Amino acid sequence: MNEILGMIFIVIGLAFDFFGCLGLVRLPDVYNRLQASTKSVTLGTCGILFGLFLFKGFTACGIKAILCILFILLTAPVSAHALARGTHKSGVKLWKESVCDKYEEDEVSKTA
Amino acid sequence: MRRLRWLLGLIIIILIFAIIIFYPLPSLLEWQSPLLRHSFFVLFFCALFCLWRILKGPTSADRAVAIDILGILVLGFCAILGIPTGRNWYIDIGIAWALQSFISTLALAKYLEGRNFDE
């Protein structure tokens, strides 16, 4: 029973991974790519690790998988935010059909 | 023209899934079920997409994003390899890889921002 549940979690995680990487190839802009790929790939890898935990049960390997899920959920948003901030400060333009740029407005209002 | 390109991409994705499902792989490992073998191939194509973005990315920020995603995908590789082989130390490699990937991504973000590293 546990193995079937783990297999279902792994397949859901693989679907999230695949569509995140498809977004990394297809979307037109750095910020769009970051937005699409980071969130869905993080959730997909968490699904795979939870499937591994269901396979292994409460052994050392399963507990390490749970620790990995916690670590990824804490660090992936931090690294994505740092990358977006660094990209914006290095002067990469937005896509020409983007609607608004709140970070730029904040910078302008701080200096003024 | 736009619709033709969309159709071409759809055909490529269907071909990828056909390769994943029907390709007869020689059994390097004793896989418990064929679904695990196919899942390994899905992650392989995800890594190929990331490598394509690293090769072709117009700016250096694209490459940094793709390296970040590749670091998370390797963790999935380690988790899946731990199931059919029955060895418990693959997840240790995954933990170490996640730590190293996080720190290297922060260093790349700092480099893109254009400051010194000790600031």
Topology:
The complex is a heterodimer of chains A (112) and B (119).
Chain A: H1 2-26, H2 30-56, H3 60-89, H4 102-111
Chain B: H1 2-22, H2 34-56, H3 60-85, H4 90-113
Helix pairs in contact in B: 1-2, 2-3, 3-4
What does this structure look like?
The complex is a heterodimer of chains A (112) and B (119). Chain A is mainly alpha-helical and 112 residues long. Chain A has one domain (2-111). In chain A, 82% of the residues lie in helices and 0% in strands. The termini of chain A are far apart. Chain B contains 4 helices and no strands. In chain B, helix 1 (2-22) runs antiparallel to helix 2 (34-56). The radius of gyration of chain B is 18 Å and the shape is flat. Chain B starts with a helix and ends in a 6-residue tail after the last helix. Classes of the chains: A mainly alpha (112), B mainly alpha (119). The interface between A and B is large, with 50 and 47 residues.
Tag the structure with descriptive keywords:
heterodimer, A: 112 residues, mainly alpha, elongated, B: 119 residues, flat
Provide a concise account of the structure shown.
The complex is a heterodimer of chains A (112) and B (119). Chain A is an all-alpha fold.
